[in-house]
Amino acid sequence: xxxxxxxxxxxxxxxSKKYMTAEDIATxxxxxxxxxxxxxxxxxxxxxxxGFEPHKGYGVVDGYFLPPVxxxxxxxxALLLMETIVYGFADRSIVEHYSTALNKVKAVLRxxxxxxxxxxxxxxxxxxxxxxxxxxxxLADIQDAISQKYILAIDYKNNxxxxxxxxxxxxxxxxxxxxxxxxxxxxxxxxxxxxRVSRIxxxxxxxxxxxxxxxITLNDFMKNFSENY
Length: 229
Hints:
By secondary structure, this protein is of the alpha+beta class. The chain is built from eight helices and seven strands; from the N terminus they run H-H-H-E-E-H-H-H-H-E-E-E-E-E-H.
């Protein structure tokens, strides 16, 4: 990778995260930390506002945005393939958002790329088992609640076909056994529970912040989980 491509790639990477350490950037581009310092300086000299926070790393100052100039055919093809996977394993809310995002990508492609992408789209299919159901639409709201740390109110049907109302504090999402599962602190049971998303009948974001301090991380939850990933 030449330096111009590396500098552009570094800027895109910094825009994709709030902070990145020099060591993480060096690992990503397989360069030395000293070279990262030189590249950051070069970007700043071009007027790009890159800040630094001790113990956190480098980040592009809020408000600065550099739209992508172009996508390679290989990059566009990869996004198209992911669309097939999204349609197979996500719910209606995620499919809608992904389709909107992909249309924005297609809008900046050259006409020749668009034609090849449309042709490729006609030759990619995914065949899923009949038991896979993704006719719900809660994943986008769940993601928002996880990131904002808001309590969710849900009507949930358990595996005994019993329905009850619960307030939960969502910690994270796991996909296993061909289903999405929401890991959350349940106020009714006063413990962490595994809720299969397809069994959620109704979901409402209460807008109320978490009441339980110091939640377990999803990684720690998975360490004690019996399911074979």
